[in-house]
């Protein structure tokens, strides 16, 4: 047998202290993006916005990567949103998963994109690029987000229009959900932009914040540390540039042990 092939996970191959969960469904959005859902182990608790290590046995060894849990903490199933890297050690295999397959899930979720890491405020800005929308997919489906904030603004920027579909489907699903519909109401705003293809809203979120178009498009006042809170998830460069803009507006970075005005997730970048 080819040692580079992903093997079916036989019970003997499951590393100790790790869950092996069943894939329930897989949706491919583009050549480079897909979503999948798995069963959730009894006793696997997490806070909306956290990430966990997920993996596969590749060759003879388990291989893990950090993934934000995209489903909210109350949901029965786990959802993940992933890129496909053609030669990626994990994603080249992960992109082939089918319903019924098993994935490995480490037991300890963690992360800084959690409501507990923010001080109270009125407006929550969730800034994402690419698959950085995943932790926010969790948070915008959590009723606690709307108990804590009067308004929640999700921004999602991708190169091409097709990459925005996961976010549009998500918001549509919330609007059609019997329970979430009433909780979310008009509190959630979704601002989607592209940078390399025609779309009604175009440009990097950093440029749109700087030139004010983001605020005028949504009819919102400039960022204000008295009322506004933020979370940022994207590439290393995007995190750095967005963080600088929030700091320039007077917001301070927080953490689990020191809540403040905004938080960023560094776990996914090298
Ligand atoms: P751009 O097309 O101008 O590079 P990537 O796939 O490279 O992570 O990019 C995802 C999205 O994030 C793209 O729309 C990209 O815009 C944007 N982006 C990349 N770097 C930054 C940055 N430093 N600040 C804000 N947005 C960025």
Keywords:
11 strands; globular; binds adenosine-2'-5'-diphosphate; 270 residues; alpha/beta; 2 domains; Elongation Factor Tu (Ef-tu), domain 3; Rossmann fold; 6-stranded antiparallel beta sheet
Protein architecture, described:
This protein has helices at residues 91-94, 134-139, 143-148, 165-176, 178-184, 205-210, 213-218, 236-248; strands at residues 18-30, 33-39, 51-58, 61-68, 77-83, 102-106, 123-129, 151-158, 188-194, 228-233, 262-264. The strands form two sheets. Strands 4-3-6-1-2-5 form a six-stranded antiparallel sheet. With 270 residues, the protein is an alpha/beta fold. Adenosine-2'-5'-diphosphate (A2P) binds at residues 129-130, 157-159, 195-196, 204-206, 234-235, 237-238, 241. The site of adenosine-2'-5'-diphosphate has 15 residues, from β8, α6 and α8.
By CATH's scheme, which homologous superfamily of the largest domain applies?
Answer: Nucleotide-binding domain of ferredoxin-NADP reductase (FNR) module
Rg, Å, rounded? 19 Å
Q: What's the rounded overall pLDDT mean?
A: 94
CATH topology of the largest domain: Rossmann fold
Classified by CATH, the class of the largest domain is Alpha Beta
Question: Looking at the structure, what is the overall shape?
Answer: globular
Q: How many strands, which pairing sense, and closed or not: the largest β-sheet?
A: 6 strands, antiparallel
In order across it, which strands form the biggest sheet?
A: 4-3-6-1-2-5
| Whole-number total of structural domains | 2
Poorly predicted segments = none
Q: Helicity, in percent?
A: 10-25%
Report the span from N to C terminus. 33 Å
Hetero groups in this structure are:
adenosine-2'-5'-diphosphate
- Helix and strand run: EEEEEHEEHHEHHEHHEHE
Strand content: 25-35%
Global structural class: alpha/beta
Catalytic activity: 2 reduced [2Fe-2S]-[ferredoxin] + NADP(+) + H(+) = 2 oxidized [2Fe-2S]-[ferredoxin] + NADPH
EC number: 1.18.1.2
Pfam families: FAD_binding_6
Domain FAD-binding FR-type: 16-116
């Amino acid at each position: 047998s080819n040692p580079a092939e992903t093997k079916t996970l036989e019970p003997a191959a499951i590393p100790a202290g790790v869950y092996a969960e069943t894939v329930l469904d897989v949706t491919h959005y583009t050549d480079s993006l897909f979503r999948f859902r798995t069963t959730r182990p009894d006793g696997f608790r997490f806070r909306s916005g956290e990430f966990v290590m997920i993996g596969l046995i590749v060759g003879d060894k388990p291989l893990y990567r950090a993934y934000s849990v995209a489903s909210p903490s109350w949901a029965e199933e786990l959802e993940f949103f992933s890129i496909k890297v053609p030669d990626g050690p994990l994603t080249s295999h992960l992109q082939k998963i089918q319903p019924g397959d098993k994935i490995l899930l480490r037991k300890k979720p963690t992360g800084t994109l959690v409501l507990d890491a923010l001080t109270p405020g009125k407006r929550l800005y969730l800034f994402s690029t690419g698959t950085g929308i995943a932790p926010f997919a969790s948070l915008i489906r959590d009723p606690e987000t709307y108990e804590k904030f009067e308004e929640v603004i999700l921004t999602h920027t991708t190169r091409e229009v097709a990459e925005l579909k996961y976010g549009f489907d998500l918001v549509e699903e919330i609007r059609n959900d019997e329970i979430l519909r009433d909780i979310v109401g008009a509190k959630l705003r979704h601002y989607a932009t592209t940078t390399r293809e025609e779309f009604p809203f175009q440009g990097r979120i950093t440029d749109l914040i700087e030139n004010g178009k983001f605020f005028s498009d949504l009819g919102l006042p400039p960022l204000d540390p008295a009322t506004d809170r933020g979370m940022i998830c994207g590439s290393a460069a995007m995190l750095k540039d967005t963080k600088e803009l929030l700091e320039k507006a007077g917001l301070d970075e927080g953490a689990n042990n020191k809540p403040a005005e905004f938080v960023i997730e560094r776990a996914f970048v090298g």
